[in-house]
Design goal:
The chain contains eleven helices and 14 strands. The protein is of the alpha/beta class. The chain folds into two domains: 219 residues, Rossmann fold (3-Layer(aba) Sandwich), CATH 3.40.50.300; 68 residues, Alpha-Beta Plaits (2-Layer Sandwich). Helix 6 links the parallel strand 7 and strand 8. It is globular.
Length: 311
């Protein structure tokens, strides 16, 4: 449905995006992950025809949207990272305003407003002013705006930032339902790996302006098939213990957590004895050492050197 070919965006002498190739099949949910500054937002802006690339192309059904952006604008909905609503208008008034921008009129506009309010679970709050809404309700209305014109594809840029777990689950279930029932194609970015695990058919990992890995969840996890992820639980995480782990040349990655440390090591190394010695040297009380199957979070840490939420 959508193909990105050698996409680049350069600001003065700096590449924000360089040599990006990706595709979305109709009816897929595709994840786009990356640390802050990786180039995700710039890429999304070019895919939605808001920013003109320095080089490369974006093709919708084999036709360039750079040459004819109207093609994608008619079938695309965008949920921006920042709330894009008028706080002094009601939910219904916001939807009517944006619906008219989409050139919806009369009975059709009224019908779509009712359908969207039902989809996002805000029918009973339709007359309420948006500034009285919780963060989760604003996020749901933000999604509703993007759905008004019945798009074939939607880009969602971190749509669950800063909201309560109940609203977050509602949004995830709504996206899944729209995809399954209507075949909606979704490009989804998030700082929550469990959201990507739940929603996405395929994933692209981006860093420093380029795609550094892509595939299904299982394909990405196979990147670490020759490595072990070891979870070390301790009574108290001490800086000296972290420093000793980081100084060991056989350890690929070290990630400090609230009650322990996660490390990634080649499978051929048995570090249990060495970890115990390091803990003893750093006067750190070990609680447990567990070898885990690789997760997407481990893959992301391995590829970028950072955990997804450490951005």
């Amino acid at each position: 449905m959508l193909e990105v070919v050698q996409l680049e965006k350069k600001y003065k002498q700096t590449f924000a995006v360089q040599g990006v190739n990706m595709f979305l099949e109709k009816g897929e949910i595709v994840g786009l992950l990356g640390p802050n500054g990786a180039g995700k937002s710039t890429t999304i802006s070019m895919l939605s025809s808001l920013v003109v690339p320095t080089a490369g192309d974006v093709k919708l059904l084999n036709e360039s949207i750079i040459k004819n952006p109207r093609n994608i604008r008619e079938i695309l909905g965008v949920v921006p990272q920042e709330i894009a609503l008028y706080p002094d208008l009601s939910a219904e008034e916001n939807l009517r305003f944006f619906g008219e921008i989409y050139r919806l009129k009369g009975a059709n506009l009224k019908k779509r407003i009712n359908e969207v309010l039902e989809q996002i679970g805000l029918t009973d709050r339709r007359k309420d002013i948006v500034k009285t809404f919780s963060g989760g309700m604003k996020r749901r209305l933000n999604i509703g705006v993007a759905l008004l014109h019945n798009p074939e594809m939607i880009i969602m840029d971190e749509p669950t930032v800063g909201i309560d777990p109940q609203s977050r689950n509602y949004i995830l279930e709504t996206v899944k339902k729209l995809n399954q029932e209507r075949g909606l194609t979704v490009l989804y970015t998030s700082h929550y790996m469990e959201e990507v695990e739940f929603l996405c058919d395929r994933i692209y990992i981006m860093d420093k302006g380029s795609i550094i890995a892509s595939g299904t969840k299982d394909e990405l996890k196979n990147i670490l098939s020759s490595e072990n992820t070891i979870s070390i639980k301790v009574e108290r995480v001490k800086e000296e213990f972290i420093n000793l782990l980081q100084a060991d040349p056989t350890i690929r990655q070290v990630k400090a957590e609230e009650h322990g440390v996660t490390i990634i090591v080649p499978k051929e190394y048995n570090l249990f004895k060495k970890i115990s010695q390091m803990a003893e040297e750093a006067e750190t009380n070990l609680i447990s050492i567990d070898v885990k199957s690789p997760t997407l979070e481990d893959v992301f840490l391995h590829l970028t050197g950072r955990a997804l939420r450490d951005n």
